[in-house]
Amino acid sequence: MGAKFLALLTAALSGMTMAVQGTVNTSLSKVIGLMEATFVVHLVGLVFVSVLLFIFKMGQLRPELFSQVPLYGYLGGILGVVIVYLVIKSIPRVGVAPATTAIILGQVFTAGLIDHLGLFGMEKMPFNWCRVGGTLLMAGGAWLILRR
Question: At what angle do helices 34-50 and 75-94 cross, to 10 degrees?
């Protein structure tokens, strides 16, 4: 099994996890509220990653490296809150599959732009006609999935 295939399999597993997470977070928000669920999700995540870092010694926490991170590198926490909030807000209104389809489509378009422009320190990968065609086919598939 090649390294690229394993990376794509890992990414697919991430996507599967996101669909389950959105559904579970939505269930939580129905009981405690939208903003409250967003808070609880991140609090539980903080506790979980703290256990992994400090008890199971996974990773190496090196605070001296924090100052070397570009400022945009710290936006992930804010974006995580925004993502969880918006996913929880959208799923009850349209359903898990349509919301997830829209999420994936938004991710692909944004990822293509980030690759094309080489944003956030990423290597530039031009958005050629094959990528444009693939993205349009994906958009067409999303349209078919979202049709009622």
Answer: 130
Task: Give how many domains the chain has, as a whole number.
Answer: 1
Number of residues assigned to the chain: 148
pTM, rounded to two decimals: 0.85
Tokens representing 141 are 């598939």
CA distance 124 to 126: 6
- Model pLDDT for residues 54-94, shown as the tens digit of each residue: 999 999 999 999 999 999 999 999 999 999 999 999 999 98
Rg from Cα positions in the chain = 18
Residue whose token pair is 């990773």: 59
CB 102 within 8 A of CB 139: no
Residue of higher predicted confidence among 40 and 1: 40
137: domain range?
3-146
Return the half-sphere exposure (C-beta side, CA atoms, 13 A cut-off) of residue 92.
14
25: its two tokens: 């977070």
| pLDDT tens, residue by residue, 137-148 | 988 887 887 777
Q: Could you identify the residue written with the tokens 């080489």?
A: 118
Residues 6+ positions from 70 with CB-CB distance below 8 Å: 120, 121
